[in-house]
Amino acid sequence: MKDKLLHKLKVLAESAKYDVSCSSSGVARKNNGSGLGNASAWGVCHSFTEDGRCVSLLKVLMTNVCLYDCAYCVNRRSNDVERAAFTPEELVEITLEFYRRNYIDGLFLSSGVLKSPDHTMERMIRVARSLRTVHGFQGYIHMKTIPGASRALVYQAGLVVDRLSVNLEIPLEQDLKRLAPEKDHQSVYKPMHFIQQGMQQSLEDRKKFRSAPRFAPAGQSTQMIVGAAGDNDRDILHLSSSLYQRSGMKRVYYSGYIPVNTYDARLPTTTVRENTLKRENRLYQADWLMRFYQFSATEIVDSGQPYLELDMDPKLAWALRHPEQFPVDVNTADYAMILRIPGVGVKSAKMIVAARRHGRLTLSGLKKIGVVLKRAQYFIANNELPHFTIQEATPEYVRRALTEPASVRPPSQQLSLGF
Ligand code: SF4
């Protein structure tokens, strides 16, 4: 590859690294001579296709030139950073070359806003269309829709890519306007709506004609930045919950704010990175509870408890706030309640329901199924356990036993269970 093109690739892959919709590009690690390979914070990331396969994607921007001046973005107009732009032909060439060499399974394409949202989208569509129709490229393509793009262009994009996404960035509209004056939520919700309509239309067309084109078959996703503005976890999770009600919304990604523009007084001056990462992780766990554990956002956070607890996962936090719901008898409780027992995952809950049809479940049976008894012991009723559930032990004791085990002496009546 020519040096000039390689240099552009470096600049534009580096500029794309803050987008977490593909989640594995955040680590840089050098080989010290004793190992194999290097990890780079930019370049190739991973994503999941419609059928659940994990694929490696070339993650780049079409250009990092941008008309807009979003306070939290490294590519904002007023930043003095090196700028570059691919021509559609160059990006097609790079993608094909990497694909043929087996470096990647597809392309994750985003962009700064060059001239206008529609002008930028047109250039991105030229890349995807050329890959698909001129070169017969069958790899995965995820394209970021530019906020404010027109319906016609969103529709054209959906016909040549697997996934489309539009970033919400900042959860509360007033904060978005303050930090990114050229954007508003409407400019994001509109393309989201166009994508949804395109997917529905395609489903209906395909019912009539099997050969009708598919529209963004891997659905749509979005991303929110956590900690750049005054939003709390309640704001974020309620918004995510309403986004998941939209058909075709596959994933909401949470990106802990990284202070790249520390000179901007509108942004938080201090951010403890460790806490931001913990918060991001807790939000993903809460998101998981909403999608797979039948929790609503209001159960996880409410006006009295607007932030997730950082020192424990949200499912344990909920159980400790609701001792009246426990202990649960795994031999008789319904599936929804079994899912709520800390230490029981979706797979274990399904296995419990299936296994108890053939006889009573014992502690060793639960262990074989994969239940984490160290956690679950306080929340299940079982006559093999000493009588020491959250009801007798108190939520405070259980909290300390599970979050700071070294500081808690086991009560004398608790037997050793060997786990
Ligand atoms: S529009 Fe996108 S690339 Fe441009 S400044 Fe805002 S966040 Fe950055």
Automatic annotation (TrEMBL):
Keyword line: Iron, Iron-sulfur, Metal-binding, S-adenosyl-L-methionine
This protein's record includes keyword S-adenosyl-L-methionine: yes
Keyword Transcription regulation part of the UniProt annotation: no
Cofactor(s) needed: [4Fe-4S] cluster
GO molecular function, one term: metal ion binding
Chain ranges of the Radical SAM core domain: 61-236
Name the record gives this protein: DNA modification/repair radical SAM protein
Species name: Leminorella grimontii
Lineage: Bacteria, Pseudomonadati, Pseudomonadota, Gammaproteobacteria, Enterobacterales
